[in-house]
Amino acid sequence: MLKDHPLDKFRYCPACGSARWVAHDFKSKRCEACGFVYYANASAATAAIIVNSRGEMLAVRRAKDPAKGTLDLPGGFVDMGESIEQGMRREILEETGLQVDAMEYLYSLPNEYLYSGMTIYTVDAVFLVRVGDDQTPQAADDAADCLWIPVCEVTPADFGLTSISRAVERFLTERLWERR
Prior knowledge:
The protein is mainly beta. 14% of the residues lie in helices and 38% in strands.
């Protein structure tokens, strides 16, 4: 169950401007003046566990808050009009410059992402991604640095976002890099 109503920051009805904008249920608000109802659903997000043929996993260092300076996986929010797979490929390209050779969906995890003082509820789709060994990642966009880390040396606690740390831990526990 959610600790705060996802629409608490919104005090007025977006349809008519009324202050009679009240909680309708655990994820929606309803305007008592005009009847408009708005549901706050989870946003789609992606996380890429990129591995190479040398048994290394790619991590990026976060350039921005939240968790600035900690490790992260390439990924982010899926844009409107994109599939999750398109969003994953775009985020990898934006943050690392890498072109994806192969991508396999692994699992999803719920997440709470604090941004601009507001909790954004997401569902993070985690993918196992393969890229060509001839490609060199270059940090850009939200990534300050790119690091290849031997899988046996990856520490989930070094990843600053809770959902990403959990995703990495599950990946390591289930030995998912061994999938071919």
